[in-house]
Amino acid sequence: MSTRLPPGPAASSWAQTWRYWKSPAEFVRRCHGEFGDRFTVRVWPFGTIVFLAGHDDVKTLVRSDASVFQAGRSNSFAEMVLGRRSVFVIDDDEHARTRALMMPAFHGKAVRDQVELMREITAANLATWQVGEPVRALPHMQAISLEVISRNVMGLDDPERKERVQTAVLRLLRTGSAFDLLPGYDRFPRLHPARLRRKRPRDRADALLREQIAAHRSDPRLDERTDVLAMLLRASDAEGGWMSDQSICDQLITLLLAGHETTATGLAWCLERLVRHPEVLAKAQQAADEDDHTYLDAVIKEALRARVVVPEVGRKLSREAEFAGYRMPAGTNLWPSIELLHSSTDGFPDPEDFRPDRFLQRGALADWVPFGIGNRRCLGATFAQVESRVVLREMLRRFEFEVTDAPAESAVPRHVTRVPGDFATVTVRRLRSAA
Ligand code: HEM
User: Fold this and answer.
1) Measured in angstroms, how far is the CA atom of residue 372 from the centroid of ligand 1?
2) What does the alpha-carbon distance between residue 410 and residue 151 come to, in Å, rounded to a whole number?
3) Are 150 and 166 in contact (CB under 8 A)?
4) Is 398 left (phi over 0), alpha (psi -120 to 50) or beta?
5) Mean pLDDT, residues 124-137 taken together
6) Which parts of the sequence bind heme (predicted)?
7) What is the pLDDT of residue 237?
8) How close is the Cα of 8 to the center of ligand 1, in Å?
9) Is cis: bond before 45, omega within 30 of 0?
């Protein structure tokens, strides 16, 4: 058993840090070209990161002991926004229990019950688009997905409370600053400057969410409600109120932040790709008219493959452990690269092509992992795919888009996602009769 880590750049960690932050995607691609599917880099403030781009390594990681290869620990940077009990930052039994309680709200039938509301929200937004003028699709997609999360997930029907909650949670998200990068959060979380800066916005968001929880509890129609908050309250009450109100606040903030920008970005990329691929656009339009879910789903999957929303996921070693023939010290980060997996020619022949048909063929595409892997795979994956299908279908039925031979939009980092550099600018050529 080797005690060394996989190979990687010989440059100092300062030089690597500089190159990484200058352009993370380019740095990772270069290292992959030079060192292959498994390489080690040293980047402040993360420390040692072993990138994984090989199918077998990712499979091994999925089967590894989750109490050693910890995702919550790797995601701990998000704790100051999401809260200590967020499903995203916890590990072990607490994670398994919280996830099990939340899961039923995100299963197929529960999500299908949400479709009509998603459609109404989409239609209201699309009604504001102007024909013949360039539209930045990304902010529209964000508005739609924020509304969907607020209504379908948080059950915020009251327009005034909805707006106050949205403002408070988005303010909390935007309270980021250079303080976030200061070390010491793991040792002194309560005294860390980044935490102190967020205390007031977080308290404000909590107070509003507690109001919303209380309003739901006293709703005589709680049993009939289909929103995720109602399902969480029912599930927790059935288990003797196992989840505290504070924990429920943490999950609601997590769902809003994890669910809205990601879905919006995926949809924006989908449009950006479609207007540059007229044949695919024509087929997608026909699929929308005929309500052919299979082809629309394939378009969405291919967009999520070709333009990753989240470039990688993280696991951090809670103790020294063996992996892929290496003995890795405690604290090592393992980052399966979604971006590299999605551009592998083994998994996806001609990966540069935008070809939804690859998702129509039989057989699972094991390297397709836009929603992450294993016991931490995105809780909202079905929700996101159904919402994307509803929004895409509505857009294609309502609008005929101008196709373009403009160069592809660049991918620009934003929070944990990569968004289209021109906000997925498209032009509606005309309204269609199917609208
Ligand atoms: C296209 C849209 C989306 C993408 C690309 C996406 C991607 C991801 C990824 C990569 C992870 C990390 C998985 C891992 O560590 O292996 C994740 C986790 C998560 N996502 Fe999503 N997501 C999307 C939409 C949503 C939506 C709509 C929701 C909820 C409404 C959601 C809720 C969550 C939660 C709660 C987790 C944490 C799961 C856990 O740690 O057990 N996501 N997502």
Assistant:
1) 7
2) 32
3) yes
4) alpha
5) 96
6) 378
7) 80
8) 29
9) yes
**Ligand 1: lining residues by beta carbon, under 6 Å:** 71, 87-88, 99, 149, 153, 254-255, 258-259, 262-263, 266, 309-310, 313, 370-373, 376-380, 383-384
Q: What is the pLDDT of residues 56-86, one digit of tens each?
A: 999 999 999 999 999 999 998 888 889 999 9
In the chain, where the domains are located: 13-431
Instruction: Give the domain 13-431 fold.
Output: Cytochrome p450 (1.10.630)
Measuring from atom 20 of ligand 1, which residue has the nearest CA?
Answer: 378
Q: What confidence tens digit (pLDDT) does each residue in 277-333 have?
A: 999 999 999 999 999 999 999 999 999 999 999 999 999 999 999 999 999 999 999
Which DSSP letter does residue 186 get? T
Confidence label for 386 from pLDDT (cuts 50, 70 and 90): very high
**Residue-level pLDDT at 170:** 85
249 assigned to a ligand binding site = no
> What letter represents residue 3's amino acid?
T
> Which residue from 378, 382, 419 has its CB within 8 A of the most atoms of ligand 1, so it is best to mutate?
378
Report which DSSP code applies to 432.
-
Separation CA 77–CA 71 (nearest Å) = 11
Q: How far is the CA of 244 from the centre of ligand 1 (A)?
A: 22
| Distance (Å, whole) CA 419 – CA 169 | 21
Which residue has its alpha carbon closest to ligand 1 atom 3?
262
* Paired tokens of 299: 């378009």
Residue nearest to ligand 1 atom 37, measured at CA: 88
Ligand 1 centroid to residue 32 C-alpha, Å: 25
Closest CA to 381 of 314, 311, 315, 309: 309
In tens, the pLDDT along 12-42 reads: 999 999 999 999 999 999 999 999 999 999 9
